[in-house]
Amino acid sequence: MYQTIKIIIDGKECIAKKGQYIVEAAKENNIYIPTLCNIEGVKPKGACRICTVKVNGRLMTACTTPVAEGMSIESESAELTDLRRSIIELLFVEGNHFCPACEKSGECILQALAYRYSVMAPRFPFMFPIRELDASNPKIIKDHNRCVLCKRCIRVIKDDEGKNIFAFKKRGHKVEIIVDPESADKFTDELAEKAMEICPVGAILVKGKGFKKPIGQRKYDLMPIGSDIEKVSKSKKAVL
Amino acid sequence: MGQKITIEPVTRVEGHGKVTIHIDNNGNILQTRLHIVEFRGFERFVQGRPYWEAPVLVQRLCGICPVSHHLAAAKAMDVIVGAGTGDGLTPTGEKMRRLMHYGQMFQSHSLHFFHLASPDLLFGVNADPSIRNVIGVALEHQDLAVQGVMMRKFGQEIIQATAGKKIHGTGAIPGGINKSLTQKEVDTFLKGNDPMNIDKMISWSQDALTFFKDYHSNHKEIIDDFAEFPSNHLSLVRKDGALDLYHGVLRAVDSEGKIILHDVDYQEYYKYIEEEVRSWSYMKFPYLKEFGKDNGWYTVGPLARMNTADFIDTPLAQKEFESFKAYNYGKPSNKSMHMHWARLIEILHSAEKMKELLLDPDIQKGELVIKGNKKSEGVGLIEAPRGTLFHHYKVNSNDQIEMANLIVSTTNNNQPMNNAVNQVAQNVMTGQSIITEGMMNAVEVAIRAYDPCLSCATHALGQMPLEISLYNSNNELIDRKIK
Ligand code: SF4
User: Fold this and answer.
1) ipTM confidence score
2) Which of A82, B331, B334, B401 could serve as a FRET partner for B464 with CA atoms 20 to 30 Å apart?
3) Is residue A239 part of a domain?
4) Number of Cα atoms under 13 Å in the Cβ half of residue A154
5) Which chain A residue lies closest to B181 (C-alpha atoms)?
């Protein structure tokens, strides 16, 4: 049996399980706190900061902060919404995200969040970095233009001995994801499929597999991000 | 001392056209040139991208007929993934793509005829531009305007059902299609409430032809004599010689109807066709190699297709084809304004084809995709509304596009459009020292018959804004007229 505790999210009294992270507790109370790098069941990283909330007045990442008795959490305030929107905008301007021809369009978390937060034109200048497409792996293409460095691929895709398949190469703003040459032979077709699926954007593409799922039938075409948790009708698209 | 007249549409930056006319002191036309900005950028954009992105990426070339680019690229990629050309796909794959294409043809041709061409016909070339537009048509011929809008809508709904979106969908993928239709979708097209059903579309297509033929019998001077000049004609035809807008072999006939390109496999188009670069134009000039630059140029589009095909495989359009042929004594028509007639026959043909496909059980079930041994090079051709469209790609062993070459319909029609403008200039401008509204309109109408990119042909919401500048041989501006 879990020990239950009481917390408050956006003024609503909620029941949470002790030791749970805030995002999980919120979800069980039908409150959506946006996440991008986080994946259920995998140790959280707090890399993207999109889930930032105010806990008793202090900014914390909801994916890495466990709940505690009496916590007062603020999530959907104008201030936090603007903060989240600015993070989304920064991610857009930092890479080259051209949704119209992207395989992940309709299933991309970044795009779905941009819709939810009504990102029209970013307030920051586009950086238009010059990045190459790496098609040298026989199974996947890595489009560095779209990578948001969330580390999902590194954290989730492991070989049968539990070793990472993906790794970071280079440093600073030049950092990019690679298939670790030492693990390359352990990189199966199934793992490649899984990597494409867990990548929140279109940075990992399985070779030869494009646009199989029709537009209009894709995940976020059918249900805007967060609406499954909030259990609201399809029409609720944006927060503000 | 010579003079130079420049006619420049200034509404849109991209795809805009510009006409320059050189005349001598006696008003004789020395030379005419039509300049159109072309889309070469896309051939560079796709380099390095995965091959399966091409059909989705290149359709962004155009917001008016994206489906043509989508399908031409997909056909080229069929070859790359080893699915063969055109008829190599599964029945569902090919039929869904065809349905998408006929929907596209139907909506694009309807837009062209009702919104762009009908104002010229209804109000005449010399009419006041304030009424010579689709608003004028709506006010004076409400039934026609409504039909135009609804036919376009029907075609777009077909595109949405087959491609996922009305504009820039993702339906065609290398080796096939990503969806089939449900019975419910089919029923909305077959049995939809009046007028949104296929039978109404067929009967409206026939009405449009009746309207045109009535008009023709009263205005032979406009339809038969305007911008007529001998030309070769090129298009795909089905292997048995039937009109086929989606797939076939490449055939060309000369102005007398003699076959000069004998039903060749388009995978090797570059053996027969070359593109000439001229210093004064961004757009290349394609021609049939065998006949050289001066004699090898050709026309593409609805009129060319009527001239190359032996017959049409749908009964109502075949009857119209027969009367079109009979009117031209069985010879190719070289009359630019017959392009509208041909376009209407194709609207009817597309409607009949859509019905045939909607009744076909294959579009509701069956394998969607087929693949075989990968190849490194593929060519996809399709008959786009404006004419034959060529897509040619080379892909490296890492699945990345290395080379792309596109020859769009407007490029294929570069020389004939130049000739049409020249013809009109000779007729209406020779011996004239001032530029009249009618002259400007005549040039515009000649260009519009070919239906180049709409950004330079449109007058949907008013006349095509033009600027005419008159220069003497010293390049000094001596007059300017703007409308
Ligand atoms: S490749 Fe995808 S999953 Fe991996 S770090 Fe980049 S965005 Fe995240």
Assistant:
1) 0.85
2) B334
3) no
4) 16
5) A214
